[in-house]
Structure to design on (294 residues):
């Protein structure tokens, strides 16, 4: 059995701690919220880990991740490994990996998907890093990925950022899929000829080419609130949709569906969009993201 430190014990991080422990391993968790944490500081967490020390980050992208990595750079030593499992921008990974390398510390970036259902179903993991660093942390990936399948866990590339780039594109595709479901729901809900919209969507869950987990989540939401009257037509964008479109522009890759779905979310901030009610409902279903009440 193995041990790692886990920084960030929110919706996903807390469930990941439980899933790894359920696999028989030890997790020493730290969070700024003392009610969630196992220890009182990063120093105390690091001191509790055997060598080579492995620390997995599940903190917000940008400055929170950067400041945590900078602090860990002074606490960890040669041969240790940091895993960034949050939604960092892939371009940040090269800088973080280079900084840790000056200390002899390895770095693995891991796009992590599974939302609030990952504890039960497992997480899809897309990671980037050297073969040597990945080998040190493979046991953690094995504990977190879906059971009884070889899918759901992939070494996306050896270049820092490969995992987060793959996860970024995944999220861009997710934007477009949700937008298509939402627009279809808005049309069905508006036209009187269809009398039972929730059951129409439910009928698509079996045997059709549009079945998916997102569809399952939307059906659950429609059964609870047929016209989504309790949800405001406002949907945030996490940033990864923007980064996907930016990367498409940088590489001259046409991306009309994903870019349109991103711009549609911007429109939700101007009007109470019916389609955005469905987007907000699905985001709440798979990730526990907050919704605004009507």
């Amino acid at each position: 059995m193995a041990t790692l430190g886990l920084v960030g014990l929110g919706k996903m991080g807390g469930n990941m701690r439980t899933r790894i422990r359920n696999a028989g391993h030890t997790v020493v968790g730290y969070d700024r919220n003392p009610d969630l944490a196992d220890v009182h500081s990063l120093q105390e967490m690091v001191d509790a880990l055997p060598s080579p020390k492995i620390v997995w980050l599940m903190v917000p992208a940008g400055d929170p991740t950067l400041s945590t990595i900078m602090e860990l750079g002074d606490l960890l030593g040669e041969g240790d490994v940091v895993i960034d499992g949050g939604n960092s921008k892939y371009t940040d990974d090269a800088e973080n990996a280079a900084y840790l390398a000056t200390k002899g510390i390895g770095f693995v970036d891991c796009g992590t998907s599974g939302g609030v259902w990952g504890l039960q179903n497992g997480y899809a993991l897309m990671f980037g890093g050297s073969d040597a660093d990945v080998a040190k942390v493979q046991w953690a990936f094995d504990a977190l990925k879906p059971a009884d399948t070889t899918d759901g866990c992939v070494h996306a590339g050896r270049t820092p950022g490969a995992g987060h780039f793959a996860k970024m594109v995944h999220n861009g595709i997710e934007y477009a899929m949700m937008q298509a479901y939402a627009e279809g729901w808005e049309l069905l809900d508006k036209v009187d000829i269809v009398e039972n919209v929730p059951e129409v969507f439910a009928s698509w869950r079996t045997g059709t080419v549009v079945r998916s987990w997102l569809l399952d989540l939307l059906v659950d939401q429609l059964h609870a609130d047929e016209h989504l009257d309790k949800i405001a037509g406002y949907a945030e964008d996490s940033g990864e949709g923007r980064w996907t479109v930016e990367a498409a522009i940088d590489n001259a890759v046409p991306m009309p569906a994903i870019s349109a779905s991103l711009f549609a979310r911007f429109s939700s901030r101007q009007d109470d969009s019916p389609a955005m009610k469905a987007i907000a409902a699905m985001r709440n279903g798979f990730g526990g993201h907050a919704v605004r009440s009507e």
Observations:
- Residues 16 and 119 are 6 Å apart (CA to CA).
- Residues 3-158 form a domain with the Rossmann fold fold (CATH 3.40.50.720).
- The chain has two domains: 3-158, 168-287.
- Residues 162-190 form the longest helix (29 residues).
